From TrEMBL:
<dbReference type="Pfam" id="PF00296">
    <property type="entry name" value="Bac_luciferase"/>
</dbReference>
<dbReference type="InterPro" id="IPR050172">
    <property type="entry name" value="SsuD_RutA_monooxygenase"/>
</dbReference>
<dbReference type="InterPro" id="IPR011251">
    <property type="entry name" value="Luciferase-like_dom"/>
</dbReference>
<keyword id="KW-0288">FMN</keyword>
<dbReference type="GO" id="GO:0046306">
    <property type="term" value="P:alkanesulfonate catabolic process"/>
</dbReference>
<dbReference type="GO" id="GO:0008726">
    <property type="term" value="F:alkanesulfonate monooxygenase activity"/>
</dbReference>
<keyword id="KW-0285">Flavoprotein</keyword>
<keyword id="KW-0503">Monooxygenase</keyword>
<protein>
    <submittedName>
        <fullName>Oxidoreductase</fullName>
    </submittedName>
</protein>
<dbReference type="InterPro" id="IPR036661">
    <property type="entry name" value="Luciferase-like_sf"/>
</dbReference>
<keyword id="KW-0560">Oxidoreductase</keyword>
<feature type="domain" description="Luciferase-like">
    <location>
        <begin position="1"/>
        <end position="215"/>
    </location>
</feature>
Length: 280
């Protein structure tokens, strides 16, 4: 199983200067990939721009959006951005994509929150065409794997027919995640697809002393504060020790997941070293 680490782009007030150094340290320490979390109305850094900075600072790491809230963006413009990033980074990009659950993000850009799933379906056609030889958006065709987040029937349809797999959420509900992964694999076979779908998981983490752990939990409480019950689940589930991190790796490896992404909840660069010491 491949192990990636998140950039702290989603941590409130994060300094843009940390992104490049964080990415370089992650590559030096042997992580397989870097990932971002997407959000609009929050004092964070843009996902695609953060990954672009990380791409320029590294040469081998995979670049993963986990997940990108595509309906918030113009489909041709987003296809252009992602196609350009894939081309400049040497086809290291994997796009985890979803619709999110914050209506205020959609209100801010004048997009109908109730139609976000249908909008995503329309965007997929535009993006796939834009990345093709006839699309007219990229200097040359690019292949960008698309993985879908969520637990709906629409997620299964997208992941198994037009996509390349599924992205599980950050809560470690191993039983239901494993069951949904099996539904994705079964749907993939039923659609007559070759090979196997990619199955990713993620966890939130903060490693270090009690103050670091407290700050990590405070971040999750704020970030998911629009859903207090869900925020509490994330706070309680946060990986906060080396043993806990290793247990997550073992559990997802045993379940047959292909990649595990550790999202930081504090922006201190020593988190890269502490996680590497624990799981690599």
């Amino acid at each position: 199983m491949r192990i990636g680490i998140g950039l702290p782009n989603h941590v409130a007030g994060v300094s843009g200067a940390v992104i490049g150094s964080w990415a370089r340290r992650a590559e030096e320490r042997g992580f397989e990939s870097l990932t971002t979390i997407d959000r609009l109305l929050y004092p964070s850094l843009d996902s695609v721009i953060s990954l672009s900075v990380a791409a320029g600072a590294t040469s081998t790491l995979g670049l993963v959006t986990n997940v990108l809230l595509a309906p918030l963006y113009s489909a041709p413009a987003l296809a252009k951005q992602l196609g350009s990033l894939a081309a400049c980074a040497g086809d290291r990009l994997t796009v985890g994509i979803g619709v999110g659950s914050r209506a205020d993000d959609y209100d801010a850009v004048g997009v109908d929150f109730a139609r976000r799933g249908r909008i995503l379906d329309e965007q997929l056609v535009t993006m796939r065409h834009g990345w093709s030889a006839d699309g007219g958006l990229c200097p040359a065709p690019v292949q960008i794997p698309l993985l879908f987040g969520g637990r709906s029937e629409a997620t299964i349809r997208r992941a198994t027919t037009v996509g390349d797999g599924w992205v599980a959420g950050a809560l470690r509900d191993f039983g239901s995640q494993s069951a949904f992964a099996e539904r994705i694999r079964a749907g993939w076979r039923a659609a007559g697809r070759q090979g196997n779908p990619q199955i990713h998981a993620s966890v939130n983490f903060a490693l270090g002393n009690g103050d670091v752990v407290r700050r990590g939990r405070d971040h999750l409480a704020r970030y998911y504060g629009f859903k207090p019950d869900y925020a509490k689940l994330n706070v309680d589930d946060m990986v906060h020790s080396a043993d806990d991190a290793r247990a997550a790796v073992r559990a997802y490896g045993d379940l047959g997941f292909d990649r595990l992404l550790f999202h930081p909840t504090v922006a201190s660069i020593d988190q890269v070293d502490l996680l590497a010491d624990a799981v690599l």
